[in-house]
Design goal:
The protein contains 7 helices and 6 strands; from the N terminus they run ββααααβαβββαα. It is of the alpha+beta class. The strands form 2 sheets. The protein has a 4-stranded antiparallel beta sheet. Strands 1-2 form a two-stranded antiparallel ribbon. Keywords: Heme, Iron, Lyase, Membrane, Metal-binding, Mitochondrion, Mitochondrion inner membrane.
Length: 324
């Protein structure tokens, strides 16, 4: 999940996916260890020529040979950790059917301001899977896989936008939006959306996706804990580890006008299929605990919802409306 390509192409309409629910470092100029001269009266030797002068650091920093083979990591796009030269044409005899070449624009703004991220075409997706070693994937299934892939990423972005809407104004305003639980936030979000529609030429700042990284082999601490609980209490916790994990790096717009980079963690789970046979997926999206602020945000949202439901908040609201 989460494969975007960073190359810009001609602008396309926004994807109709409604959701149902680092710079090169140089070696130091000198090392901390130096050879002492035998006597202070010995005149210093003449400086060597620039071609023969030894490096000030004992570690050699010679350039790699001209015929050296680039590493696999160096071939990856730093924005999405995917091969940057995936072609958009049929490349192998393993492909049994022709796949669409059209790419679909997402609703996710890019951090560099160049429009929205674009999803790979089914042909690019198939080529990327072959390059990763998934040669047993039937080509006729790739188009459906791309549709699910795009749908899940749109859902993940909607969840991130909900987190940002709560906390981009600070923890205090975030608590005001979390104090009435998830139900109260949904109602207030609907009201705020109507107010924004009535305002003309005024838009609230929205987050942007800077880059992302797929880490399917690295379980998050929460997923590890749930896996342990399923071993400890198998009757209460299902043994259903996430089939994928992503780290999305998001640019938050602060009230002061400045921006801040945040990391979000996304666990992708599969659920029991629908009676009609359709697959079911659900996402666990939350800020990574990279500091105390992110930890507070997660505690406020979880604690606000638990307190609101445990204290009968919705019942109090209903009684208050009946008294009016």
């Amino acid at each position: 999940m989460g494969w975007f390509w960073a190359e810009t192409t001609s602008s396309r309409p926004v994807a109709p996916h409604p959701i149902p629910s680092r710079a090169n470092a140089e070696p130091p100029p000198s090392c901390p260890m130096h050879n002492k001269t035998k006597t202070a009266l010995t005149p210093p030797p003449s400086p060597p020529s620039t071609t023969d002068r030894p490096s000030a650091c004992p570690v050699k920093h010679d350039a790699p040979p001209a015929n050296a083979t680039p590493s696999y990591i160096s071939k990856l796009n730093p924005l999405n950790y995917m091969p940057s030269n995936i072609s958009n044409k049929r490349e192998t005899d393993l492909q049994s059917v022709n796949l669409p070449l059209e790419r679909e624009a997402s609703t996710i703004p890019r951090g560099d301001g160049q429009g929205n991220w674009e999803y790979p075409s089914p042909q690019q997706m198939y080529n990327a899977m072959l390059r990763k070693g998934y040669t047993d994937t039937p080509a006729e299934h790739v188009e459906s896989m791309v549709a699910v892939h795009n749908f899940l990423n749109e859902g993940a972005w909607e969840e991130i936008k909900a987190w940002e809407d709560r906390f981009q104004g600070g923890l205090y305003k975030g608590w005001e939006k979390c104090a009435k639980g998830e139900e109260g936030y949904a109602q207030q979000a609907t009201i705020d959306a109507i107010k924004r529609m009535r305002r003309q030429g005024e838009e609230d700042p929205e987050p942007k996706l800077l880059r992302f990284e797929g880490r399917p082999g690295d379980l998050t601490p929460k997923a590890r804990m749930l896996s342990f609980m399923s071993w400890l209490y198998p009757s209460q916790f299902p043994d259903n580890p996430p089939f994928d994990r992503h780290d999305w790096f998001v640019e938050r717009q602060l009230p002061s006008g400045r921006t801040k980079e945040l990391r979000y963690v996304i666990d992708y789970y599969s659920g029991p299929p629908e009676p009609t046979g359709e697959p079911v997926f659900y996402l666990d999206v939350r800020p990574a605990v990279d500091g105390p602020t992110a930890a507070c945000e997660r505690m406020l949202r979880w604690g606000g919802d638990v307190w609101w439901r445990a204290s009968g908040g919705s019942v109090r609201e209903e009684l208050a409306r009946q008294k009016k």
